[in-house]
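Page 47, continued from p. 46.
Same chain as before, 280 aa.
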Amino acid sequence: MLVGLVCALGAALLYGAAAVGQAVASRRLPPAEDGFVRLTLAALRDRLMLVVIASYLVGAALHLAAIELTPLYLAQAGIAASLPVTALVAAVYLRERLTPLDWAAILATGVGIALLAVAAGDAGSGDHEPSFVVGLYVGLALVFALGLAAYRTDGTWSGATLGLLAGVAYAGTTLAARAIPDGSLRTVALVVVLCVFGVLGFWLYSFAMQRVAVTGATAPLILAETVVPAGVGIALLGDTVPAGSWPLLAVALALAMGGAVWLSGFEARVEGRVATDAGA
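Result:
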């Protein structure tokens, strides 16, 4: 359990730092209207974007270890620590000021994750019916269709929607990873859907950050990739909650997610203050 939590927090550190780099790199890419191919080629020529991709890949390896060793509600809540990391990196690298409430949100997220570690039960085995794999592919098609619709729509809400769908896509990678069995014919199908979900989530997140602030895109992503796997893990994949621990689990999740939601407005508030100062 401890090793799994350390892996989750290590992944959160990489994800959180990469989010700031991804935001900087995404905003100097060609506009989405220029086409996906040109945007992709520009990204592959950008050194910062390549570092971001490498950070995400290493983080993903640590995340996969956490998925196998801990219940999904703990593994995913641990990943939510990436949002405080994003805020701290932005405060240092971009010199954005953290308010007392921001620090309180960072503390709340940390306390929530610690309480989850105390309340956590055993990780499930990942046993599932063949229909579970079919459901993942149906979900993949749905996320792709909704993401395409949001991509073609202008406005701030489309950025938040893309962030939310990116979170659902990353939730799909988590569920596929947990469901991969040993020596089963379904392994190839699960590996394929895991990889496609991951690529789809990455691009939806990049598109979201072209339209809204870093944490404005990250907050719905974190919520979706935490809540969806947590619920499915308990309902279908055998994750357990010790008897009597449900109240503590609920409080812990509320603290971790509440802190993350507050921090989602961090960059937007700072950008608003900068714009006001510039116009003064």
